[in-house]
Amino acid sequence: MLKLILKQQEEALQNDDAISFIRLDHEFHLSLTRLANFTIIEQVLNNLHNLTQLMGLKAVSKLGRMKNVLMEHTQIIQALEEKNPELASQAILNHLEKQKKH
Question: Does the keyword Repeat belong to this entry (predicted)?
Answer without folding.
Answer: no
